[in-house]
C-alpha cells in the first residue's frame, strides 16, 4: 500500500512539474536558449560594441556552447574560429594552440571579428552573419552579382546552401534570444 502511495506521489509530482513548466514557458525557453558564458559575452560585446544576443546566437548555432567543439573544416571553440581568423585578430596559435579553445579568449576574438564584419557591412545582420560563415570576400562578390543582389546592398539569395541555412538558423535564434531576454 505504501509503495502505491509513493508511486502516486511521484507521478503527481512529475505531472505538477510539467504543468508548472507549461505555464512558465519563458523559463522553459531559457533552458533551451541559455546564456552560457554571459560574463565574457557581455564584457566583450560591450568592448567591441556588438549585440550580445547576436553573439549568443552565433555560439548556440556554431558550438551549442561546447568550448572544445571542432568542425570538419577545423573551426574551433565556442564561436568556431578558424586559425587564420584567430591569428588575424592577434592570437598566437603557435605558442598556445589550446588558447583558441579557452572560452574567454574565443569569445573575445569572436566579438572582435563580429565587430569587424559589422563595420564592413554597416551592421546589417544578414550580411554580417553570412560573412561570418562564408567570409567577407564571398559576401562582397554576391552583392556585386545581380543574380544575388538587385541593389548591391542586400542579398536576395545566397548561392551557398550551407550559408543560407546558417544565416536563417542564426537569425531565428537571434529573434528568440531577443524575445526571451529583451521582451
Automatic annotation (TrEMBL):
<keyword id="KW-0812">Transmembrane</keyword>
<dbReference type="Pfam" id="PF01464">
    <property type="entry name" value="SLT"/>
</dbReference>
<keyword id="KW-0472">Membrane</keyword>
<keyword id="KW-1133">Transmembrane helix</keyword>
<protein>
    <submittedName>
        <fullName>Transglycosylase SLT domain-containing protein</fullName>
    </submittedName>
</protein>
<feature type="domain" description="Transglycosylase SLT">
    <location>
        <begin position="43"/>
        <end position="149"/>
    </location>
</feature>
<feature type="transmembrane region" description="Helical">
    <location>
        <begin position="8"/>
        <end position="25"/>
    </location>
</feature>
<dbReference type="InterPro" id="IPR023346">
    <property type="entry name" value="Lysozyme-like_dom_sf"/>
</dbReference>
<dbReference type="InterPro" id="IPR008258">
    <property type="entry name" value="Transglycosylase_SLT_dom_1"/>
</dbReference>
